[in-house]
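Hello K.,

You asked for the raw outputs rather than the summary table, so here they are, unedited. I folded two proteins back to back in the same session to keep the settings identical. This is the first:
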Amino acid sequence: MKEVMAVIRMDKVNLTKKALLEVGIPGFSAISVMGRGKLVNDPSVITERKKTILALGRSTDDKVAEKMVVEFLDGTRLFPRRLFTVLVRDEEVARTVSR
């Protein structure tokens, strides 16, 4: 038996559950965690993400919105994620992970 662990973005949770069921893995645990991925250094991507974050900002205070953008772009802000833990037989590991 092997334990497979994966940190999943919130928008991929349902797809992950469906994929596990499709490969015959009906049981797993999911825990709420906070985290983030690799920082983006591409200026065009940063500009687009900055626009998106500012558009989502619910505050009318420009300083609050700017703080959100800076925290997102400099890596200090963490985001909600799900940690999936799955126990699989040794021969099922490659099939489970590749899905």
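The second followed immediately with the same parameters:
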Amino acid sequence: MRYIQPRLGFRSGIEPVLLAASVPVRPGERVLEGGAGAGAALLCLAARLPGLQGVGIERDAALVALAEQNAAANHWPGLRFQTGDMASPPDLGMFDHAFANPPYHSGQGTPSPDLSRQAAKRGTEDLLAIWAATLGRRVRPGGTLTFILPAGLLPRATVAFAAAHCQPVAMLPLWPKFGTAAKLVLLRGIKGSKAPFRVLPGLVLHNLANEFTPQAEAILRDGLGLSL
């Protein structure tokens, strides 16, 4: 996969790759991403499922242009990107799956002097509720909503998912190393579900030599899916 992103400012890490790996999309289904940036997550998802029909919403018009360039460079005409704000998004129809790596800092720490990093990482206290509600409205009954976010925001995110009628059904911790606390988690909700909530075994990202584990490498390099 070819991926162009800004040389300076916020740059994609492994989060969109892991997020894309967790979306249970099947042939013929439509997916929606909130805060698509330059398209990393949707591009990774399209690499796993050629012919994917996906739409990304992004408020930064320059990043939308980069995302469109990335989709064209990889010859994936089923991807399109739309400039819009998650608080008042354009009407894009209904989808089988929605997902996001939302801005999650809300006043903690020192704001970044770089505006792109600030926009990508910092949000308001009600941001998770707004994003869950916006994406949840566009998910068909039985469809999924998936976020990747810091472990400390899990309580707030589960409340936001439930309010969006996407009942939280599973959480997968992402352990930096074996025996360390998870910094990030993947949270899955299903529209209209009544299934009980499950805490999954999780994924260890690095070994003691600070190299990716074989399980993480298979996802990051080989396009393996990550089941929730």
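The chain is about 30% helix and 25% strand.

Happy to rerun anything if the numbers look odd on your end.

Regards,
P.
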